[in-house]
Amino acid sequence: MIVFDSSTIILLAKIDMLDLFISDFHGKIAIPEKVKVEVCRKGREETPLIEYLIKDNRISVLKTKDRMHKKKIMEDFNIDEGEADAILLALQESASVIATDDRNAIRACKLLKIDFLTAVAFLVRSAEKDLIPRDEALIKLRKLHSIGRYSNKIIEDATVKIKGGNEKWLPEP
Fold first, then answer.
1. What is the pLDDT, as a whole number, of residue 165?
2. Using CB atoms within 10 A of its CB, is residue 61 exposed (0-12), middle (13-18) or buried (19+)?
3. For the chain, what is the total number of helices (H) and then of strands (E)?
4. What's the predicted TM-score (pTM) here?
């Protein structure tokens, strides 16, 4: 099972990778109720796709049970409610991975020894598995760079992996 928080599900939807990822993944994909509220806001461009995937039972919406620990996780790691719920849900359901692009949630995962993946990692793996052409993956990576909060180093490393070599990525002027 993979538990998504808001950041990664939104980023994958914005680069048209969410449906592809879900189609290729053979396990259960879940989000906490709070994440559903965050990602299904009216007026957001990705909302119709995410609502469809939930309605089609390709994304499960699950309740978190441990309210007391949520507040502590939020305070200890300086994260919002959605990220805290994703971490709690992953622990509660013994999920194999959390999908998050939130810096503090990533730090929490590292400290709690929970595996995590980012939208960039999904994109790189999709290119490596030939689910999308590498030139298309590079275009999507540029879009992620423009809409996400990634360092140039992360984008450069991903570019090298997508290209399958040691070429340097240079941002466009």
1. 59
2. middle
3. 10, 5
4. 0.90
